[in-house]
Fold each of these.
Amino acid sequence: MKNSGFSRRMEVPDRNKQHQQMIEAVQNHSPDIIIIDEIGTSQEVQAAQTIAHRGVSLIATAHGGSLAAAVRNNVLKPLLGGIETVIFSAKAAERDTTGQQGKHRTVRNEPPTFSTPLEILKPRYVRIYHSLADP
């Protein structure tokens, strides 16, 4: 990370417009890193994806209870790569090398926006998921 020696805090007066402020921050201030408090709407998820695709590093919170709950949450799961379950044919399942059993497979639609999510388990205890971007 590059230390520029200063930071800027932008308040969001209308919570319903947080996604717009996220994009405006990138367009108007050219940051290296953006820290976002509580991504919770599909518009905010799309804004976070746009910011990440522009090469800006993201640190954000998203309230999901656990990584498994976030994966099941239709709004938040695109941040983790759009994970979904698909059904393989019998022949395709036999050729599959992922180690998953049966015809049902968990697949990722796209690269995750956040490659290393953390779960806050309780004060001072976190679970780190390294290399979420790996298949």
Amino acid sequence: LSRSPQAIAALVCAMFPRYPSGTIDNINHLQALRHFYVLAAEPRFIEARDVDTGLPCHVPIEIRLKERKDSGDGDDERVLRRMAPCLLPDFDDIESIRVT
């Protein structure tokens, strides 16, 4: 999920607590609001594909995160080693992605 103001507003609208008071009440309860959660989702899936066959394959990747101002962690804390296909952290936190 995204942490942008628009995404948070979409989630609040999707969980809108006012329900219809009767079977013919469509003023307070809009069915379309239930689907606003989709606006808060962002694609963060990374998948490697074989050049010859075009099929997905497992590839080790290294994700270097940006240094946060509030942490004095070492360099190892800023590097994530994953096996693609996998989910990425928030895009705002990523400095670089490298195939290892």
